[in-house]
Amino acid sequence: MSKDTVTQYWLGALTVVFLGLGGFFIVNSAARPAAGKEIPLVDVKFLDRTASRRTYADLVKANEDLSDYDCYGCHEKGKPPPIRYDANQKIIVPKEHSDVVMGHGSHDRNNLCYNCHNEQNLLTLQVRDGREVGFDNIPQLCGSCHGPNLRDWEAGAHGRTSGYWDRSLGTADRLSCANCHNPHAPRIPTRESAPAPHSLHGPAGTSSPHETTH
Amino acid sequence: MTPTLPPPDDKTSDTSMSRRNFLRGAAAFGGLTALAASLAPLRQLEDFSSSEQFLQKYYKELTPDDMTKVIGRIEREVQKEYGIRPHVRDLKPMDGVEFVYCLNLTRCIGCRKCVHACVNENNQSRNPEIQYIRVLKMPHGSMDVEKGDHTYEAKSVPEKGFFYMPVQCQQCQNPPCVKVCPVNATWQEKDGITVIDYDWCIGCRYCEAACPYWARRFNFTKPEIPKERLNPNMAYLGNRPRKQGVMEKCHFCIQRTRAGKYPACLEVCPVGARKFGNILDPESEVSYIMREKRVFIQLKEEMGTSPRFFYYFDK
């Protein structure tokens, strides 16, 4: 075989190989980035920054319906409403106040409405030493028992804050006790957790060896 | 009549298309095709850096005029991509300010709202997901992060017998990530925030490996941010959209905090577990907490990183 013929065969073979590779690269989908799996956008309820509850002060500020606080629309002035207990000394919540859940303090020991409400004037609250406190000034009432929490709240170390940390540039919005705590059942209720991170490989949660713990 | 074929013309066929010439041509064509095909993936690099960005100087060498131009370019690019004109600023550290974050482990309920408020504020990729905060669920009585689970799903939190510890960039006073960066694309500013210049980062991921808190994230693909969730209030060293192939991490919401506001994760926390402020101001919340509260360790204190992120307890 002459040298030229060998070269020709080589070139022919190379042409076939190159054309084949070219075709392979063009049609090969593995060379493209694989499409990721769909991840749903997080529900906007998890982005909500508003307070979980609205206080009397909020309603006054927003100029809203205050009929819930119009005690003497039903009660008679100068006549403290009686409080009834069942056989286990558990308070019987009247059906007009069925939205009230008695859950302040453990073992149902804090079961007297007038520990906080003012029996002489239902439009105000009172601390145990008899000082009257308005519905718009509840930290003073709560702090009469929960002193350390009031101290921390006043220092900004307890409770929710938003706005400006630099008070020379703007104001900070400090939430009040009842913006987070239900005064009748102050423990923060449990809630649904926002979705876990979606792992790149496999469904969320599979990468963890501690999944069996709950 | 018999058709008369022209006599074979050896000369013509030899010069115009010999077997050898045909094979040479075919080989050259095939080779070029293969080359073009092998370069085809480059077509998918649609956000190939503009020459402006490629020629941009190092952040610390940019004059105010340069910065105005750079911000103009970023605003143009974001508008082209998302159809929204952003407000990009280059916010400098404030004098007499050093930021500290305090997180109350007694209060945290593990609801992960901070994680998603952060993603929303800082324009992180939604797919694949990039999140700066990981919430570790840990059994009571243990402080062992090895036992932490950050992939828990719960219909109701907090779960009995567990506590929750959110971990994000600790803004170390002695940051290992800064030391390993071969191009100085990440550094600590005087207000304590360790920042990244996304236009200077080469994507080597050394910093990700150096961080003992797994606080740094890498953009393996082009970040995917839905237009309707884009936050147009942006900062150059903060939440402007990133490119494929660069690192990112928590920067204490630089676009908010250097304008005097609280970070997004703090404002969304439903139990007020997160506290932030200027540690150089003795009247600030964080100063009070450091003075009065049971502030535990800096996380992984033994690493010598000295975080500016503190965990504390109420009772």
Shape of chain B: elongated
Structural class of chain A: mainly alpha
- The pLDDT mean of chain B sits at 91
Number of helices of chain B: 10
Largest sheet of chain A: 2 strands, antiparallel
Give a quick set of tags describing it.
heterodimer, A: 214 residues, mainly alpha, two-stranded antiparallel sheet, two-stranded antiparallel ribbon, 4 strands, B: 315 residues, alpha+beta, Alpha-Beta Plaits, 4-stranded mixed beta sheet, 10 helices, 12 strands
Can you tell me about this structure?
The complex is a heterodimer of chains A (214) and B (315). Chain A is mainly α and 214 residues long. Chain A contains 5 helices and 4 strands, in the order ααββααββα. Chain A has helices at residues 3-27, 56-61, 138-143, 147-155, 177-180; strands at 124-126, 132-134, 161-163, 172-174. In chain A, the strands form 2 sheets. A two-stranded antiparallel sheet of chain A has the order 1-2. A two-stranded antiparallel sheet of chain A has the order 3-4. Chain A is elongated and about 125 Å long. Mean pLDDT of chain A is 86; it is low at 204-214. Chain B has a domain at 99-313: 2-Layer Sandwich (Alpha-Beta Plaits), CATH 3.30.70.20. A 4-stranded mixed beta sheet of chain B has the order 10-2-12-11. Chain B has a two-stranded parallel ribbon with strand order 1-8. In chain B, a hairpin with a 5-residue loop joins β5 and β6. Chain B is α+β, with helices and mostly antiparallel strands. Chains A and B meet through α1 and β3 of A and α2, α5, β3, α9 and β10 of B.
Task: Reconstruct the topology from this structure.
The complex is a heterodimer of chains A (214) and B (315).
Chain A: H1 3-27, H2 56-61, E1 124-126, E2 132-134, H3 138-143, H4 147-155, E3 161-163, E4 172-174, H5 177-180
Antiparallel strand pairs in A: 1-2, 3-4
Chain B: H1 10-16, H2 19-38, H3 51-54, H4 64-82, E1 87-89, E2 99-104, H5 113-121, E3 134-139, E4 162-167, H6 176-180, E5 186-188, E6 194-196, H7 206-210, E7 217-218, E8 233-235, E9 247-248, H8 254-257, H9 264-268, E10 274-278, H10 285-292, E11 294-298, E12 309-313
Parallel strand pairs in B: 1-8, 2-12
Antiparallel strand pairs in B: 2-10, 3-4, 5-6, 7-9, 11-12
